[in-house]
Design goal:
The protein is mostly helical and 92 residues long. The chain has helices at residues 2-8, 15-23, 37-58, 62-87. The chain has a domain at 34-92. Helix 3 (37-58) runs antiparallel to helix 4. The protein is elongated, with a radius of gyration of 24 Å. The two termini are 46 Å apart. It holds the Pfam family DUF6704. InterPro entries: DUF6704. Keywords: Membrane, Transmembrane, Transmembrane helix.
């Protein structure tokens, strides 16, 4: 087992390679991970829609269920519309 792990692990063979490995970032830095007004608004509208729809199913109220379904659809449309209006993630 130790022989297999020795083969799969990569050990630096020179000082230059060791310094390169230490300086390499684990991930590329990102300015935004989708945190925008458009994204948050769309998700919150859809979350409210799922909540209302779930309550409609729970209390056996068809109109409440369909209001929830409509809210999910509105949230799914609001997200890209708001992004195109300038509320999306900022360019890097």
């Amino acid at each position: 087992m130790t022989e297999m792990s020795a083969k799969t692990s990569h050990e630096p063979t020179s000082i230059a390679e060791a310094e390169e490995v230490q300086e390499a970032p684990l991930q590329e830095p990102h300015e935004s991970h989708g945190h925008s007004v458009a994204a948050w608004t769309g998700v919150l509208i859809m979350l409210a829609g799922f909540t209302v729809g779930t309550l409609g199913i729970w209390f056996d109220q068809a109109i409440l269920t369909w209001v929830g379904v409509a809210a999910v659809a509105v949230g799914a449309v609001a997200w890209p519309v708001l992004a195109r209006l300038g509320f999306g993630p900022k360019a890097h």
